[in-house]
Amino acid sequence: MLQAGIVGLPNVGKSTLFNALTAQETALAANYPFATIEPNVGVVAVPDERLEPLAKVVKTDVIVPATVEFVDIAGLVRGASKGEGLGNQFLANIRETDAVIQVVRCFEDENIIHVEGSVHPVRDIETIQIELALADLASAEKRRDKATRAAKAGDKDAKIELELLDKIQPKLEEGLPARSADLSDDERAIVKGWFFLTTKPTIYAANVDEETLADPGANAHVQTVTAHGAAEKAEVVVICAKLEAELVALDPAERSEYLKDLGLASSGVDKMIKSAYKMLGLMSFLTAGEKEVRAWTIPVGTKAPKAAGTIHTDIERGFIRAEIISYHDLITCGSRKAASEKGLARLEGKEYVMQDGDVVDFRFNV
Protein backbone atom coordinates (compact mmCIF):
# COMPACT_ATOMS: atom_id res chain seq x y z
CA MET A 1 0.00 0.00 0.00
CA LEU A 2 1.29 3.47 -0.89
CA GLN A 3 2.06 5.74 2.07
CA ALA A 4 1.75 9.47 2.73
CA GLY A 5 4.19 10.66 5.41
CA ILE A 6 3.13 13.44 7.79
CA VAL A 7 6.13 15.67 8.49
CA GLY A 8 6.92 19.01 10.05
CA LEU A 9 8.83 20.73 12.81
CA PRO A 10 8.17 19.60 16.40
CA ASN A 11 4.94 20.92 17.98
CA VAL A 12 3.17 21.96 14.78
CA GLY A 13 0.32 19.44 15.18
CA LYS A 14 1.53 16.39 13.23
CA SER A 15 0.45 13.78 15.77
CA THR A 16 -2.83 15.58 16.47
CA LEU A 17 -3.58 15.53 12.74
CA PHE A 18 -2.59 11.87 12.52
CA ASN A 19 -4.98 11.05 15.37
CA ALA A 20 -7.77 12.88 13.58
CA LEU A 21 -7.01 11.19 10.25
CA THR A 22 -6.98 7.72 11.76
CA ALA A 23 -9.86 8.42 14.20
CA GLN A 24 -7.76 7.15 17.05
CA GLU A 25 -5.44 8.40 19.76
CA THR A 26 -2.44 6.15 19.37
CA ALA A 27 0.00 8.93 18.46
CA LEU A 28 1.42 10.69 21.51
CA ALA A 29 0.58 14.40 21.27
CA ALA A 30 2.66 16.42 23.71
CA ASN A 31 4.03 19.93 24.14
CA TYR A 32 7.72 19.15 23.73
CA PRO A 33 10.05 18.25 20.84
CA PHE A 34 10.39 14.60 19.74
CA ALA A 35 7.13 13.46 21.34
CA THR A 36 6.98 11.13 18.33
CA ILE A 37 10.06 8.91 18.08
CA GLU A 38 8.93 5.78 16.25
CA PRO A 39 6.67 6.46 13.27
CA ASN A 40 2.99 5.70 13.82
CA VAL A 41 1.19 4.05 10.91
CA GLY A 42 -2.54 4.15 10.25
CA VAL A 43 -4.75 2.79 7.46
CA VAL A 44 -7.48 5.33 6.71
CA ALA A 45 -10.76 4.95 4.83
CA VAL A 46 -11.06 7.27 1.82
CA PRO A 47 -14.34 9.26 2.00
CA ASP A 48 -16.46 8.39 -1.05
CA GLU A 49 -19.94 9.86 -1.34
CA ARG A 50 -20.81 7.38 -4.10
CA LEU A 51 -20.86 4.27 -1.91
CA GLU A 52 -24.04 4.78 0.11
CA PRO A 53 -26.28 5.63 -2.89
CA LEU A 54 -24.82 2.65 -4.73
CA ALA A 55 -25.55 0.38 -1.76
CA LYS A 56 -29.18 1.50 -1.80
CA VAL A 57 -29.47 0.65 -5.51
CA VAL A 58 -28.18 -2.92 -5.04
CA LYS A 59 -29.86 -3.30 -1.62
CA THR A 60 -26.87 -4.14 0.57
CA ASP A 61 -25.81 -2.88 3.99
CA VAL A 62 -22.14 -3.81 3.54
CA ILE A 63 -19.89 -0.98 2.33
CA VAL A 64 -16.12 -1.35 2.02
CA PRO A 65 -14.29 1.90 1.18
CA ALA A 66 -10.87 2.31 -0.39
CA THR A 67 -8.01 2.96 2.03
CA VAL A 68 -4.77 4.91 2.14
CA GLU A 69 -1.91 4.65 4.62
CA PHE A 70 -0.58 7.59 6.65
CA VAL A 71 2.67 7.65 8.62
CA ASP A 72 3.31 10.10 11.47
CA ILE A 73 7.05 10.83 11.37
CA ALA A 74 9.22 12.36 14.09
CA GLY A 75 9.62 16.16 14.07
CA LEU A 76 12.61 17.57 12.22
CA VAL A 77 14.96 20.36 13.36
CA ARG A 78 17.77 22.31 11.72
CA GLY A 79 20.78 20.10 11.10
CA ALA A 80 18.72 16.95 10.48
CA SER A 81 20.70 16.26 7.31
CA LYS A 82 23.78 16.06 9.55
CA GLY A 83 22.02 13.86 12.12
CA GLU A 84 20.85 16.59 14.53
CA GLY A 85 17.89 15.69 16.74
CA LEU A 86 16.30 12.60 15.23
CA GLY A 87 17.44 13.65 11.77
CA ASN A 88 18.82 10.35 10.53
CA GLN A 89 15.68 8.51 11.58
CA PHE A 90 13.44 11.22 10.12
CA LEU A 91 15.18 11.04 6.75
CA ALA A 92 15.08 7.24 6.68
CA ASN A 93 11.37 7.18 7.52
CA ILE A 94 10.40 9.77 4.94
CA ARG A 95 12.46 8.02 2.26
CA GLU A 96 10.16 5.02 2.64
CA THR A 97 6.99 7.03 1.94
CA ASP A 98 5.52 7.86 -1.47
CA ALA A 99 4.26 11.38 -0.77
CA VAL A 100 4.59 14.06 1.90
CA ILE A 101 2.09 16.05 3.92
CA GLN A 102 3.96 18.88 5.60
CA VAL A 103 2.07 20.29 8.57
CA VAL A 104 2.74 24.01 8.94
CA ARG A 105 1.76 25.90 12.08
CA CYS A 106 -0.48 28.86 11.20
CA PHE A 107 -1.84 29.71 14.65
CA GLU A 108 -0.59 31.76 17.59
CA ASP A 109 -0.64 30.22 21.07
CA GLU A 110 1.86 31.27 23.71
CA ASN A 111 1.13 28.09 25.66
CA ILE A 112 2.46 25.88 22.86
CA ILE A 113 6.21 26.05 22.37
CA HIS A 114 7.55 26.71 18.87
CA VAL A 115 10.97 25.16 18.37
CA GLU A 116 12.18 28.29 16.52
CA GLY A 117 10.71 30.70 19.09
CA SER A 118 8.04 32.25 16.84
CA VAL A 119 5.37 31.34 14.30
CA HIS A 120 6.71 31.86 10.77
CA PRO A 121 5.23 29.33 8.28
CA VAL A 122 7.48 30.01 5.28
CA ARG A 123 10.61 29.83 7.43
CA ASP A 124 9.37 26.49 8.80
CA ILE A 125 8.69 25.16 5.29
CA GLU A 126 12.14 26.27 4.15
CA THR A 127 13.81 24.70 7.20
CA ILE A 128 12.50 21.27 6.24
CA GLN A 129 12.98 21.90 2.53
CA ILE A 130 16.64 22.83 3.02
CA GLU A 131 17.34 19.81 5.20
CA LEU A 132 15.77 17.46 2.65
CA ALA A 133 17.61 19.20 -0.19
CA LEU A 134 20.93 18.86 1.65
CA ALA A 135 20.32 15.16 2.18
CA ASP A 136 19.48 14.78 -1.53
CA LEU A 137 22.54 16.82 -2.49
CA ALA A 138 24.78 14.37 -0.64
CA SER A 139 23.09 11.51 -2.54
CA ALA A 140 23.42 13.38 -5.85
CA GLU A 141 27.14 13.93 -5.33
CA LYS A 142 27.65 10.21 -4.74
CA ARG A 143 25.67 9.40 -7.87
CA ARG A 144 27.74 11.91 -9.87
CA ASP A 145 31.04 10.35 -8.77
CA LYS A 146 29.85 6.89 -9.76
CA ALA A 147 28.28 8.07 -13.06
CA THR A 148 31.37 10.03 -14.02
CA ARG A 149 33.54 6.93 -13.77
CA ALA A 150 31.00 4.88 -15.73
CA ALA A 151 30.64 7.55 -18.43
CA LYS A 152 34.40 7.58 -19.02
CA ALA A 153 34.12 3.86 -19.67
CA GLY A 154 31.51 4.55 -22.35
CA ASP A 155 28.33 3.80 -20.40
CA LYS A 156 25.50 5.64 -22.25
CA ASP A 157 23.08 5.43 -19.29
CA ALA A 158 25.70 7.09 -17.09
CA LYS A 159 25.93 10.00 -19.54
CA ILE A 160 22.15 10.46 -19.36
CA GLU A 161 22.39 10.38 -15.57
CA LEU A 162 25.02 13.11 -15.58
CA GLU A 163 22.82 15.28 -17.80
CA LEU A 164 19.96 14.88 -15.34
CA LEU A 165 22.20 15.66 -12.38
CA ASP A 166 23.27 18.85 -14.20
CA LYS A 167 19.64 19.95 -14.06
CA ILE A 168 18.90 18.82 -10.51
CA GLN A 169 22.02 19.63 -8.51
CA PRO A 170 21.85 23.43 -8.98
CA LYS A 171 18.34 23.38 -7.51
CA LEU A 172 19.47 21.32 -4.52
CA GLU A 173 22.45 23.64 -3.98
CA GLU A 174 19.96 26.53 -3.70
CA GLY A 175 18.00 24.59 -1.08
CA LEU A 176 15.17 23.97 -3.55
CA PRO A 177 13.46 20.60 -4.13
CA ALA A 178 14.56 18.36 -6.99
CA ARG A 179 10.96 18.36 -8.24
CA SER A 180 11.37 22.05 -9.14
CA ALA A 181 13.84 21.13 -11.91
CA ASP A 182 12.51 21.39 -15.47
CA LEU A 183 12.34 17.72 -16.47
CA SER A 184 10.39 15.78 -19.08
CA ASP A 185 8.06 12.96 -18.03
CA ASP A 186 10.65 10.40 -19.13
CA GLU A 187 13.35 12.17 -17.11
CA ARG A 188 11.12 12.30 -14.05
CA ALA A 189 10.53 8.56 -14.37
CA ILE A 190 14.30 7.98 -14.26
CA VAL A 191 14.82 10.31 -11.29
CA LYS A 192 11.97 8.66 -9.39
CA GLY A 193 14.14 5.55 -9.19
CA TRP A 194 16.80 7.52 -7.33
CA PHE A 195 14.50 7.86 -4.29
CA PHE A 196 15.36 11.50 -3.65
CA LEU A 197 13.42 13.00 -0.76
CA THR A 198 12.55 16.21 -2.59
CA THR A 199 11.02 14.51 -5.64
CA LYS A 200 8.07 13.31 -3.56
CA PRO A 201 4.76 15.09 -4.25
CA THR A 202 3.84 17.39 -1.36
CA ILE A 203 0.72 18.84 0.26
CA TYR A 204 1.02 21.68 2.77
CA ALA A 205 -1.42 21.33 5.68
CA ALA A 206 -1.95 24.83 7.09
CA ASN A 207 -2.84 24.06 10.71
CA VAL A 208 -5.03 26.89 12.04
CA ASP A 209 -7.09 27.63 15.14
CA GLU A 210 -10.86 27.13 15.15
CA GLU A 211 -11.62 30.84 14.70
CA THR A 212 -9.72 30.90 11.40
CA LEU A 213 -11.85 28.19 9.78
CA ALA A 214 -14.70 30.61 9.02
CA ASP A 215 -12.41 32.77 6.86
CA PRO A 216 -8.99 31.17 6.26
CA GLY A 217 -8.06 33.81 3.70
CA ALA A 218 -8.02 36.46 6.43
CA ASN A 219 -5.21 34.64 8.27
CA ALA A 220 -1.86 36.18 7.26
CA HIS A 221 -0.02 32.93 7.94
CA VAL A 222 -2.40 31.01 5.65
CA GLN A 223 -1.88 33.64 2.97
CA THR A 224 1.89 33.11 2.98
CA VAL A 225 1.56 29.30 2.87
CA THR A 226 -0.95 29.55 0.02
CA ALA A 227 1.40 31.79 -1.96
CA HIS A 228 4.33 29.46 -1.32
CA GLY A 229 2.29 26.44 -2.40
CA ALA A 230 1.17 28.21 -5.59
CA ALA A 231 4.78 29.00 -6.48
CA GLU A 232 5.68 25.32 -6.07
CA LYS A 233 2.47 24.12 -7.71
CA ALA A 234 1.75 22.25 -4.47
CA GLU A 235 -1.71 21.91 -2.94
CA VAL A 236 -2.52 23.68 0.33
CA VAL A 237 -5.23 22.31 2.63
CA VAL A 238 -6.41 24.43 5.59
CA ILE A 239 -7.19 22.32 8.63
CA CYS A 240 -7.67 22.72 12.37
CA ALA A 241 -6.03 19.57 13.67
CA LYS A 242 -7.15 20.19 17.25
CA LEU A 243 -10.80 20.54 16.24
CA GLU A 244 -10.64 17.53 13.92
CA ALA A 245 -9.20 15.38 16.71
CA GLU A 246 -12.09 16.45 18.95
CA LEU A 247 -14.68 15.70 16.24
CA VAL A 248 -13.57 12.05 16.30
CA ALA A 249 -15.45 11.58 19.59
CA LEU A 250 -18.78 12.67 18.03
CA ASP A 251 -21.14 10.44 16.08
CA PRO A 252 -21.55 11.28 12.35
CA ALA A 253 -24.80 13.26 12.85
CA GLU A 254 -23.35 15.37 15.67
CA ARG A 255 -20.16 15.91 13.68
CA SER A 256 -22.12 17.10 10.66
CA GLU A 257 -24.20 19.48 12.78
CA TYR A 258 -21.12 20.90 14.49
CA LEU A 259 -19.42 21.55 11.15
CA LYS A 260 -22.62 23.18 9.87
CA ASP A 261 -22.62 25.54 12.87
CA LEU A 262 -19.07 26.53 11.93
CA GLY A 263 -20.19 27.23 8.37
CA LEU A 264 -18.25 24.26 6.96
CA ALA A 265 -19.62 21.87 4.35
CA SER A 266 -17.20 19.07 5.16
CA SER A 267 -14.40 18.01 7.47
CA GLY A 268 -10.87 19.22 6.79
CA VAL A 269 -9.75 15.64 7.42
CA ASP A 270 -11.96 14.40 4.58
CA LYS A 271 -10.37 16.95 2.24
CA MET A 272 -6.91 15.93 3.38
CA ILE A 273 -7.52 12.21 2.83
CA LYS A 274 -8.97 12.80 -0.65
CA SER A 275 -6.08 15.09 -1.57
CA ALA A 276 -3.51 12.54 -0.38
CA TYR A 277 -5.24 9.75 -2.32
CA LYS A 278 -5.18 11.84 -5.49
CA MET A 279 -1.61 13.01 -4.90
CA LEU A 280 -0.47 9.39 -4.67
CA GLY A 281 -1.84 8.91 -8.19
CA LEU A 282 -4.67 6.65 -7.03
CA MET A 283 -8.32 6.30 -7.98
CA SER A 284 -11.19 3.89 -7.30
CA PHE A 285 -13.34 1.61 -9.38
CA LEU A 286 -16.46 0.16 -7.81
CA THR A 287 -18.12 -3.24 -7.54
CA ALA A 288 -21.73 -3.55 -6.43
CA GLY A 289 -23.83 -6.60 -5.55
CA GLU A 290 -26.08 -7.99 -2.84
CA LYS A 291 -23.04 -9.12 -0.88
CA GLU A 292 -21.31 -5.72 -0.71
CA VAL A 293 -20.44 -2.43 -2.36
CA ARG A 294 -16.70 -1.89 -2.49
CA ALA A 295 -14.23 0.70 -3.73
CA TRP A 296 -11.03 -0.83 -5.13
CA THR A 297 -7.81 1.17 -5.27
CA ILE A 298 -5.76 1.25 -8.48
CA PRO A 299 -3.17 3.65 -9.93
CA VAL A 300 -4.52 6.13 -12.47
CA GLY A 301 -4.02 4.68 -15.96
CA THR A 302 -4.55 1.03 -14.96
CA LYS A 303 -5.93 -1.27 -17.67
CA ALA A 304 -8.91 -3.54 -17.04
CA PRO A 305 -7.06 -6.89 -16.53
CA LYS A 306 -4.69 -5.39 -13.96
CA ALA A 307 -7.66 -3.80 -12.18
CA ALA A 308 -9.33 -7.21 -12.10
CA GLY A 309 -6.20 -8.56 -10.44
CA THR A 310 -6.76 -6.29 -7.42
CA ILE A 311 -9.84 -8.40 -6.69
CA HIS A 312 -8.15 -11.75 -7.35
CA THR A 313 -5.19 -12.89 -9.44
CA ASP A 314 -7.37 -15.60 -11.02
CA ILE A 315 -9.69 -12.93 -12.44
CA GLU A 316 -6.74 -11.19 -14.06
CA ARG A 317 -5.34 -14.46 -15.39
CA GLY A 318 -8.67 -15.53 -16.88
CA PHE A 319 -9.87 -12.05 -17.90
CA ILE A 320 -12.28 -12.01 -20.86
CA ARG A 321 -14.23 -8.76 -20.69
CA ALA A 322 -15.28 -6.07 -18.24
CA GLU A 323 -18.91 -5.00 -18.16
CA ILE A 324 -18.87 -1.36 -17.16
CA ILE A 325 -21.55 1.15 -16.23
CA SER A 326 -20.63 4.64 -15.09
CA TYR A 327 -21.65 5.45 -11.52
CA HIS A 328 -23.79 8.37 -12.67
CA ASP A 329 -25.67 6.24 -15.22
CA LEU A 330 -26.33 3.46 -12.73
CA ILE A 331 -27.68 5.82 -10.07
CA THR A 332 -29.81 7.68 -12.63
CA CYS A 333 -31.30 4.45 -14.03
CA GLY A 334 -31.83 2.89 -10.60
CA SER A 335 -30.61 -0.60 -11.51
CA ARG A 336 -28.05 -2.44 -13.58
CA LYS A 337 -30.86 -3.97 -15.67
CA ALA A 338 -32.39 -0.58 -16.49
CA ALA A 339 -28.98 0.82 -17.42
CA SER A 340 -28.37 -2.16 -19.72
CA GLU A 341 -31.76 -1.76 -21.39
CA LYS A 342 -30.87 1.85 -22.19
CA GLY A 343 -27.59 0.76 -23.74
CA LEU A 344 -25.51 2.34 -20.97
CA ALA A 345 -23.67 -0.87 -20.04
CA ARG A 346 -20.71 -1.63 -22.27
CA LEU A 347 -18.21 -4.44 -22.68
CA GLU A 348 -14.53 -3.46 -22.62
CA GLY A 349 -11.47 -5.54 -23.46
CA LYS A 350 -7.90 -5.89 -22.28
CA GLU A 351 -6.76 -2.47 -23.52
CA TYR A 352 -9.47 -0.50 -21.71
CA VAL A 353 -8.07 2.08 -19.29
CA MET A 354 -10.17 2.19 -16.14
CA GLN A 355 -11.91 5.43 -15.17
CA ASP A 356 -12.60 6.67 -11.65
CA GLY A 357 -16.11 5.60 -10.63
CA ASP A 358 -16.50 2.78 -13.14
CA VAL A 359 -18.94 0.21 -11.72
CA VAL A 360 -17.54 -3.08 -12.98
CA ASP A 361 -18.48 -6.72 -13.34
CA PHE A 362 -15.51 -8.72 -14.63
CA ARG A 363 -16.05 -11.72 -16.88
CA PHE A 364 -13.35 -14.35 -16.66
CA ASN A 365 -12.62 -18.01 -17.19
CA VAL A 366 -10.00 -20.01 -15.32
Question: Which features does this protein show?
Answer:
3-stranded mixed β-sheet, 366 residues, alpha/beta, 6-stranded mixed β-sheet, single chain
Explain what you see.
With 366 residues, the chain is an alpha/beta fold. The strands form three sheets. It has a six-stranded mixed sheet with strand order 2-4-1-5-6-7, with helices on both faces. The chain has a three-stranded mixed sheet with strand order 3-9-8, with helices on both faces. The longest helix is centred in the middle third of the chain and has 32 residues, at 121-152. Helix 4 (121-152) runs antiparallel to helix 5 (156-173). It is built from 14 helices and twelve strands. Strand 6, helix 7 and strand 7 form a beta-alpha-beta unit. It starts with a strand and ends with a strand.
